[in-house]
Amino acid sequence: MENIREQFDILNSTVYGKPLVYFDNAATTQKPRSVVDTLTRYYITLNSNIHRGAHYLSNTATEAYEQCRRKVQSFINAKHAHEIVFTRGTTESINLVASSFGKRFLNSGDEIVISGMEHHSNIVPWQLACQEKGAKLKVIPFSEQGVLDFEAFKQLLNEHTKLVAVNHVSNTLGSINPIKDIVQYAHSFNIPVLIDGAQGISHIGVDVQDIDCDFYCFSGHKMYAPMGVGVLYGKEEILNELPPYQGGGEMIKDVTFEKTTYNELPFKFEAGTPSVGDVLGLDAAIDFMNTIGINNIAQHEDMLLQYAMQQMQQIEGIRFIGTAPNKTSVISFLLGTSHPYDVGTLLDKLGIAVRTGHHCTQPIMERYGIPGTVRASFAVYNTTQEVDIFVNALKRIVPMLM
Length: 402
Ligand code: PLP
Known about the structure:
Elements: H1 2-5, E1 14-15, E2 18-19, E3 21-22, H2 33-46, H3 56-75, E4 84-87, H4 90-105, E5 111-115, H5 124-133, E6 136-140, H6 150-156, E7 161-167, H7 179-187, E8 193-196, H8 208-211, E9 215-219, E10 230-234, H9 236-241, E11 252-255, E12 260-262, H10 276-292, H11 294-312, E13 318-321, E14 330-335, H12 340-349, E15 352-353, E16 355-357, H13 362-368, E17 373-377, H14 384-401
Parallel strand pairs: 3-15, 5-6, 5-7, 7-8, 8-9
Antiparallel strand pairs: 1-2, 4-10, 9-10, 11-12, 13-14, 14-17, 16-17
Helix pairs in contact: 2-10, 3-10, 4-5, 11-14, 12-14
The structure holds pyridoxal-5'-phosphate.
């Protein structure tokens, strides 16, 4: 653990004179030195525009960029490297699919099925696509504990359903959804499935061939990589069917004023200059995760989750939001009737970074009839000592709020 923490300079900082306890990992993780060094090295030694270049820097940067594509392919076990499209993040990946899939396959009266525990990024792009084509959005309900209602999901599918889009892990409830079963059931009616993996990728191993999903989307910055880079995985057959998302350089084969023919996968979906340095940072972040091992990461975070839940249960007036038996290290809670923002502000003064509010999941808040939650979320570098500091801080602030 010391070896891991030592790679994150920021974890040694103090805020308001208190050692920083960073529990806002579901929003973004901190970056190890290897990732920051990779970014710096890129700009100092390799900066150039990729593909098309006839010189050393461009060729070397292109090779490094394409090497990262192969690394992502192997990290999620995709069949082909050209099934990996680099984007700015989960939000852009989902918007790409909603826009292109919508244009190609959606018609008036069609239906898209999502779940009630989606991030706004997996709601609004589908609403936009549905509005454009006169299609409808259907929503899978979930239980008080935060478990998707699988029977209700089955009932929602019919001959109008064109696609199912659900998250792997809820960023607010921590629930791990049964995505393999969802894919299997949807596929039995030939309905494709998109998985929002923003919270899955850094906490549990992802094997897209085993899951058999048609699309899997994630962000680099939630898995120790820089902001500004993400991935859309799509099966070759379906990506080939979709029209381009954006037009511009790189995504074309030939352009005349009369007609443009498009480049092959994955370049068809990578218009313009990509964020090369950030992609190389993603490569370094995958190395960081692979060195520890995703199973070790999952085990450590699960230990923290169990430990924290046990300690937090002793706190007077605490209410947990999201208690699914199968969940990752995200703890959403309320203290009595206090506003989550007040709890977050007091924790901040004690050096503890948590997130408060609706976490871009307003329908979840509506489901529970609450304005928001306080959310603590753990990463591989967090410790039980930090959980102790957090729990003691909560015990200190309870009397101030009630
Ligand atoms: N989906 C989920 C489940 C998330 O947790 C998030 C971010 O918190 C997103 C999508 C959006 O990710 P990004 O802002 O990196 O595009």
